[in-house]
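Researcher: Quick test of sequence recovery. Tokens follow.
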């Protein structure tokens, strides 16, 4: 049987749900597919991961016991496609054929056919709530913001994230159907092919979530300032800093991710010194006017873009991440000129990696203070009670939400 996007999607689901792999670790399943089919397989996989819980509820009445994982994932994929309105004939037939040609599960093709024909009679999740976050993550979020807020986040995470662009200052980009957000980002209409948009080749914009794009305006770099982008890859914030006229040093420990940063600098014609090194082992030649520290974190604020994370992570890495963040804050503060400023941010929903991390830094450094100046367009309601910005996926829910972030501007 010829390799298809659906077959690749099932293999990727097996990797995430069976082996605990991130989607980025499952890309071997895409080998041999055309670019269009690769993109489709990735899209299908993400759609299923956003709806595993409601899909299993829909399938449960038609299954006396759970089938082998590959068969169950085939059923999940077909069910989600049916719910999303794909033609039942094609969906059911390909699912049956995939199982029929599987060397170990061919005998279950009849089961797949029978179950999916029942699902096709009423392909709907009905009034089921959206998929819940795992307990290790949901509980601290409920403790911090309450059940209604967390349920609202889960509702946003059930849909694909829209694509946001950061515009290069002074460039006039006309993109049909795009929405100008209050903070200056441009949100694309669904289904737009990014690389085909005007201004791509000339570097008039770059893809960057609207929440992530707020960290640089919060830092407020000035032309000519020496600015360090610490933990810089993949480079959206580096481009913002360089476009503001700063003399930028972009530092990250990951060589492969810095390749993308270099490619984006080349496309946009912007310049920055690119350094691959461990910040904890490096000493810069001179202090900086400003530093942006987008610290390694649990990435729990990016689940709407990375729906594999709730199935792969369990919170066990948090203690080490929190310790690393604290060490990087202390390191960065030592690299600032007197009167310099530091923006600390994490794409995390967890207070441990945001509000609590800020409180601990202030306790360690009595001369440090939080500058509560808001970046342009930011809603005052996004202020965290003790300082900084707390951004959540349910903000701008009617527009498609935003990534979860904590960010704070610190000065001495």
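Model:
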């Amino acid at each position: 049987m010829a390799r298809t996007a659906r077959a690749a999607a099932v293999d990727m689901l097996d990797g995430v749900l069976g082996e605990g792999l991130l989607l980025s670790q499952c890309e071997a399943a895409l080998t041999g597919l055309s670019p269009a089919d690769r993109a489709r397989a990735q899209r299908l996989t993400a759609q299923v991961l956003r709806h595993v819980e409601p899909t299993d509820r829909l399938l449960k009445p038609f299954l006396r016991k759970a089938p082998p994982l590959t068969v169950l994932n085939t059923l999940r994929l077909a069910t989600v496609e049916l719910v999303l309105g794909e033609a039942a004939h094609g969906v059911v037939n390909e699912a049956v054929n995939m199982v029929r040609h599987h060397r170990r599960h061919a005998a279950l093709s009849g089961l797949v056919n029978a179950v999916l024909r029942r699902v096709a009679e009423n392909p709907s999740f009905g009034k089921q709530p959206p998929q819940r976050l795992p307990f290790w993550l949901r509980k601290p979020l409920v403790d911090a913001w309450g059940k209604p807020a967390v349920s609202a986040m889960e509702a946003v995470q059930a849909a694909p994230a829209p694509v946001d662009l950061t515009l290069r200052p002074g460039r006039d980009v006309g993109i049909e159907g795009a929405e100008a957000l209050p903070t200056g980002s441009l949100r694309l209409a669904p289904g737009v092919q990014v690389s085909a948009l005007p201004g791509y080749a000339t570097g008039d914009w770059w893809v960057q979530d609207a929440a992530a794009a707020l960290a640089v305006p919060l830092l407020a770099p000035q032309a000519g300032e020496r600015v360090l982008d610490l933990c810089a890859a993949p480079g959206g914030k580096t481009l913002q800093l360089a476009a503001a006229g700063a003399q930028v040093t972009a530092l990250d420990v990951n060589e492969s991710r810095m390749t993308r940063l270099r490619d984006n600098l080349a496309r946009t014609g912007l310049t920055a010194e690119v350094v691959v090194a461990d910040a904890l082992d490096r000493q810069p030649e001179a202090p900086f006017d400003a530093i942006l520290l987008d610290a390694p974190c649990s990435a729990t604020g990016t689940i709407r873009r990375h729906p594999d994370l709730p199935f792969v992570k369990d919170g066990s890495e948090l203690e080490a991440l929190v310790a690393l963040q604290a060490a990087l804050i202390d390191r960065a503060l030592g690299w600032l000129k007197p009167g310099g400023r530091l923006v600390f941010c994490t794409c995390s929903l967890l207070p441990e990696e945001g509000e609590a991390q800020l409180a601990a830094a202030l306790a360690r450094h009595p001369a440090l203070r939080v500058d509560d100046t808001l970046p342009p367009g930011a809603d005052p309601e996004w202020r965290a009670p003790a300082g900084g910005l707390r951004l959540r996926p349910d903000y701008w829910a009617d527009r498609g939400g935003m990534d979860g972030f904590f960010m704070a501007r610190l000065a001495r």
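The chain has two domains: 5-121, 163-411.
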